[in-house]
Amino acid sequence: MRISYVILLLCLLHSFSWGWSKDGHVIIAKITYNLITDKTKEKIDLLLKKPMNSGFTECTDPLSRFEYALFWPDLIRTLKDEGPSSPVDPAYSKYVHGRRYSSWHHYINIPYFPEGFREDIAITPLTGNIIDELYISMFTLNNADPKTAGIDCTEKLCWLGHLTGDIHAPLHCTAMYSKKYPKGDRGGNSIIISGNTYDNLHSFWDHAPEMAAKKMKMNNVKFAQYLEKQYPRSTFKAELEKIGFAEWAGESYIIAIHTAYAGLNLNSDNIILTEDYKKKVMTASERQITLAAYRLADMLNKIFDR
Fold it and tell me: How many other C-beta atoms can be found within 10 angstroms of the C-beta atom of residue 147?
């Protein structure tokens, strides 16, 4: 039976996805923190002073705690439970023992068919995706009092910040299907590239912000400042009017089609990226992480500055 393309666009596909690198999330955190109000900062820090593992307690100031929070959802995917002496809070053993549980939250891969629709593709719908988790996190925080809230709200703050970044990563919202990839390319994870530090397309995109900063010889502080000046809010006037998470995923999907996959020989076993392609990736990633920061700041101010 032929399944309609519209229904397929709503399917959620499994992929091994990390999102922007640690540096990417830290840069988003720095821009966001510069844009939120003092009242918002105060309430956020009340939540982040309720640590979920030793990493939070090692942070010495509110900004460093916020930066750590935005990277925490990736960190828990590498933690190992080493028994009673483990620094992992027992309340979060569900992450340590259920890596796939947390992995599902980082993406929603909308199918892309560059060779045309195929009836023999293997699409497996699943529940628990980046859009769902963003709404759950936002609603939880909207109904919480930071003074009395438990660490469940701290967790949701981490997820809201982290996934706002991830949903702006084009290959976290796309899966390419073709004769070569009948089960999907897992958001570019299956596409092997050579001549770079990173060996697959997804990883290359995840690390694009830090590569851009390195190319400009800037640390994260300087790069965050540069992005705010290079891409002021007026740059994203139309985008900032969109508040739906599905709309944000749709934007990333379009970038994936027209930039991430464009111009590549997708049937090759080993793709070599051109300098022109790399430049386009870095520009797109700069815009996306800056837009993510503006949107995150707007959400946090709306939730906490009241």
Answer: 8
User: Rounded to an integer, what distance in angstroms lies between the CA atom of residue 47 and that of residue 152?
Assistant: 10
Asked if 213 and 223 touch (Cβ cutoff 8 Å), the reply is yes
- Give residue 120's pLDDT: 65
The CATH code of the domain at 5-304 is 1.10.575.10
- Domain boundaries of the chain, sorted by first residue: 5-304
Query: In Å, how far are 52, 133, 135, 161 from 250, measured between CA atoms?
Result: 33, 16, 16, 19
CA–CA distance, 13 with 109 (Å, rounded to integer): 5
What are the pLDDT digits (tens) for 145-202? Answer: 999 998 889 999 999 999 999 999 999 999 999 989 988 999 999 999 988 889 999 9
pTM of the model: 0.88
Nearest to 27, CA basis, from 286, 301, 303, 300: 286
